[in-house]
Amino acid sequence: LSYTLGLVGSCYSIDTACASALAALHLCATTVQDSCTDGIGVGTKILTQITNLAMSVAAMLSLAGRCHTFDRRANGYCRAEGCAALLL
Fold it and tell me: Which domain holds residue 33?
């Protein structure tokens, strides 16, 4: 993103499983407070076949293909892709 938009300054790639976006935003906020005026924190989640297979084998995915949050029918969770960016 930095290269495509011609941005200058620090650029990090953070992989902390489910907390990558939170870690990126924390680093962005800390950097904005300490040494720069603007920052963009971005988080993405991309589904891959190997991860879906691993979660299926571990019986983590819903057999019904739906999340039944706070319901006795709940039997796992459903995954989705997403992307969000926050300009600080």
Answer: 16-87
Beta-carbon contacts of 33 under 8 Å, excluding residues fewer than 6 positions away, are none
C-alpha of 20 from chain center = 5
d(CA 68, CA 78): 10
Q: What is the pLDDT of residues 44-78, one digit of tens each?
A: 888 999 988 999 999 899 888 888 889 999 898 88
Domain count for the chain, please give it: 1
Answer for the pair 47, 79: CB distance below 8 angstroms, yes or no: yes
- Give a yes or no: residue 20 inside a domain: yes
User: What's the whole-model pTM score?
Assistant: 0.68
Residues 10, 34: Cα–Cα separation, whole Å: 13
